[in-house]
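Students often ask why inverse folding is considered easier than folding. One informal answer: many sequences map to the same fold, so there is more than one right answer. In these notes we will look at a single instance of the problem. The structure comes first.
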């Protein structure tokens, strides 16, 4: 699928990978998980890394479990091409994109710019 014109806003991400959703209404469905850095909460049970890191772990192929480091901040161009590549490799295999964190809304400007593009590739769950 062609990727439309890109935003200039870059995002601080922790990881991007393809996996089966393990909880909630979409349990059992494959999603592309985009984990944003930063969180303004401090849940006592938190075991999620949220600090900004030099590079985001991006899976080399959907579900491979193998990752490459991509320097932060990540551009929409890089993310959209990854999603487009994966949906091409697994046609119909991904239900949606899961935007997760951290607290993705801490990068609200990034979401404003990215989501209109990404939702042309797959439905978005935030
Ligand atoms: S990342 Fe999730 S669990 Fe951790 S502090 Fe933020 S909201 Fe709470």
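Output (designed amino acids):
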């Amino acid at each position: 699928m062609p990727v439309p014109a890109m935003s200039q806003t870059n995002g601080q991400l922790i990881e991007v990978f393809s996996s089966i959703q393990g909880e909630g209404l979409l349990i059992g469905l494959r999603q592309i998980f985009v984990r944003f850095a930063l969180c303004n909460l401090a849940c006592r049970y938190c075991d999620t890394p949220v600090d900004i890191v030099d590079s985001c772990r991006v899976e080399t192929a959907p579900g491979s479990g193998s990752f490459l480091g991509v320097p932060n901040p990540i551009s929409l161009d890089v993310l959209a091409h990854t999603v487009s590549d994966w949906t091409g490799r697994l046609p119909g295999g991904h239900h949606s994109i899961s935007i997760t964190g951290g607290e993705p809304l801490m990068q609200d400007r990034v979401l404003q710019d990215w989501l209109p593009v990404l939702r042309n590739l797959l439905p978005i769950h935030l």
